[in-house]
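[Solved] Which block belongs to which protein?

Original post:
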Amino acid sequence: VAPSAPPLDGHGCWEDAHQANNNRNTNVSPMKTPKTPGVQRSHSNAGINSRRHIFEQKTAKTGEKCGPCGKRFGFRGTVFKCVDCKASAHQGCKESVPLPCIGLGSAKHTPGKNHVYGLTDYTPSQPPLVPGVLVHCVNELEKRGLVEVGLYRVPGSEREVRELKEKFLRGKGCPNLSQVDDIHVLCGCIKDFLRGLRDTLIPNAQWRQFTQAVENPNQTESESDILQAIADLPQANRDTLAFLILHFQRIIECPDNKMTLANMAKILAPTLIGYSSKDPEPMAIMSELGVTTKCMETLLNIDADFWSGYVDTDDGDQMYNKENLFLSPKTPEGPALLKRGVGGPLEAITPGRQSTKKKNILVFRSPFLS
């Protein structure tokens, strides 16, 4: 399947970041999880591209344009429209409609001034529950922009970011991202979309659960608490967080962009983690910025195999190659929980069979460095 834009000169770095599972940047501290030996991660749109478009032949509306070529359909001309994502194309342009096909959520139009949508309003009906705007922007960025210096730090044009976001939110499929010359516009669209949601990706109601977990001086309890906090997230938040963390880790793994783990954490923490209130005072922002950044660093330091367990689902299409079979901890909706007997092999356990001091605390082998 042809990508929506060809890779540029940084293809070698792009390829290394997606396939070199063991050659990670020294700025990242990979947390070890039990996994299938010899399996390599693939790039983020390898498996999800199995989500093909299903086109129906329709009569074009006045002024309607073809997504891939941008030309208007003739008066009462024939248009091929995807049943799920609503992308429109000429018969000869159907194969150029960008993959994957991400179905629309309940928010099918740009919200008005007095209405703000939540994350679940933009997610498809089948897992993994990740909004199409994020999937397409991440895929395009990773195809041709991993070597760009200052990803997510250097701002893109506000006008171009706003226009690109509005094109996505119109609910007419993925715009032609090959026409976006500035990679930083894609980064800006991702950040602007997340900032425009009703709540942060880590919901405000769970902010203290996450920050208290990373501030716990007992390392074992801290690791257990942060993984429990992830398990407690709503599925759309957890799937989207996993998808984005994997993306951010691939950026960190590419040294040419000069974005270290510490830099990424400082930039992304206010957008993804937020603060203790939705409208914090300046003094509160200053006092909470440290723990918010520490929380972001902790999430970025969790091994990619753990996050892949949430994105590679058995219920729906996979965002990664099906050969990625990881033994990672997860909730009843996620990977199997693991325990190791004395001198024995790992074995799966269910949440109902766990015995812990704290009620509903999950027991599994930690994906953090020991």
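(Second protein starts here: sequence line, then its structure tokens.)
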Amino acid sequence: MACLGIDIGTTSIKCCYYDKVTGLIHNSQKVHDSTNKCSEDDVAKNEQSVSQIFAAIHGALEDLAKQLRCSALNVEQISLCCQMHGIVFWDDDGHTSDLVTWQDQRCSSDFLSNLKTLTQTIDLHKGYGCATLAWLTRYEPQFLEKYTHCGSIADIFTSVLCGFKNKSLISDHNAQSWGFFDHDNRSWNEKGIKLANIKFKLPQIIKSGSIIGEAVNGNYLIQSGAKVFVPIGDLQASVYSVLGNAARKVFNYGTASQLVKTLEKPNDQLFKPSIRRTLYTDKLDLATAASLNGGNAVEVVYKLFNNSLTNTSNQIFDYDMMMELAYECKDTTLKASPVFFGERHDTTTFGSFFDIKPSNFTIGDMSAAIFRGIVENLCSMMPDFESDDVPFFAVGISGRKILQYYVRQKLGDYILYEKDITAAYGAILYDIENEV
């Protein structure tokens, strides 16, 4: 029988069809380009259109059906993962808010500091669902009055897929990513929620690997009857696609970037502020250095170069050219700290170039410095990543030789993960091997 995996990412939708008998894998992808343009008064907000995301899901599934030459996907299992931390609201009549993403900045540093002090909570940051909910409770309570449910973007999709009414469900993976989460009991921190004055009903937390319902009505080209699992975090799904239940390490590059090490339970290892303990499986947790900067930081500089060259010389400039120029200047003396989006553990430091000279301030030098800086920033967040002989996998850098060069230079030899396998596939494997 076959399984379907859906990864609802920050910039695109990735789907995977996996035949458990033959091992055959089909993939599809659609960019959703759903980020809404904010007014000058709302530049701190980062929201995405739910309808555009859903349309992209339909498009990716349609492409998958064409590959398989069928009108509807006949699968026994549907597994999902999604961009973590974000929150979306809806009611029983199908009205939805925009998705407030993990990149949202509406919670000021003062607001968060006061909220952490009031609730005695450490793991709460800008873009976290519960932080956003606390902000909306204080500053836009009338907005919340329009809705009855909340969840991650994958939670509202499964609600539609399964025809849920009067309830919302969220996995412990994604609940932890919202903040106000009791790690030991895998439940909401009710005391913190009460002190934050949050009265909006939070979704019921379900253990990752649990079946929550069945697909109904043939929605989204999926035949009715397929069992649907609670959506897990995209980080866990990405790691699982590579490691499964093995105790190893991962360098992961995407819109953001991460260094991840598996930890056996119980484990009393102390973490520095840049490292968080992340739920994974029954036997393993993850030690995660999760940077807010990765491909998004590269995009900032790429857009600058692209706009400049287009406006001045009509020259075509693409990512491949940027990476090629960067590789030619891979040993540049120019340095960069490409934390353009800040970091959760350091909200006061942002991006910069330094050691600038007339001879090293070219497009190639600047591009190389950005790629190197992304890797160096992660190394500073988890300095003991290479302290043992456990091999690590590098994910997301296949075809990016400039990143391969810096990862090897800064972290040592790695196993390059070149397979065309995505977090959508990781979600499938996770649910097969960890079904509750």
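Accepted answer:
You had them paired correctly. Confirming on the second one: The mean pLDDT is 93.
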